[in-house]
Every structure is written in structure tokens, then in C-alpha cells.
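From the pipeline queue, job 12 of 40. The input is one protein chain; the requested action is below.

Action: predict structure.
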Amino acid sequence: MPKTDKIILYSLFSLPLIFLIVVFFSGLFGKTRKELMLEDCLSENFTGRVDSLFWDKQNHNVKTAILSNGYRYQIFPNWELKIKHGDSLSKKIKTLHVELFRNHKRVDVLDYNQQINNFIE
């Protein structure tokens, strides 16, 4: 068997095997979906007034709010009816709560923990 044939043959078997090993170990020792979602939620930091609301068809038809500072906030399905045009949203980094203000008064505190637990289950 020529040398090039051996190289091709070894490549065909070794590359998929390496890929499977990497996928297996990342699934076994990597972060869970909940941990990844919590990291994303904890890293968010925004404050602004809701200028517009729309259904983002390019992103699985998720309801999205565009805030006055240009920030695009994807709204969880359970929060869609709570957030209205003209409301103010505030979330500080490393917190899991979004404060919802309407007419300069805090109307609600939206908790990411509930949403993540509902989403994972």
C-alpha cells in the first residue's frame, strides 16, 4: 500500500475519532446549559426606555425590545405581556433581576432564576 494511501486512510479514521473524544469530554466535564445561561444573564448590563417592540423573525420569532440607548433586549416568553412601549428596564451586571419601571415607579422585578428553571425543565 502506497504511503499516501496510508495517510488518507489514517486521516479518515483518526479525525472523526478525535472529534468524538473532544465532544464526549466536553459534554462530560463542560458546563451545563443552566450554568451557561446563568453566565449570560449575569453578564448583561443595561438601562433604558423601551423605544420599540417587535418579533424578531430572524431569531426564532423572539419578542425583542429596543431600548433608548440602542440595546436590543430579547424578552422571555413569560415576560412578553409585562413589558410595554415606554417602560424603562434596568439590569445591573452580576444580578439576576430586571427592574421594570412605568411612569417613574417600579412596577415589577423580573427574576431570571424563574425563567431559567422553567426553560431547563
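Job complete. The helical segments are 3-29, 33-43, 112-120.
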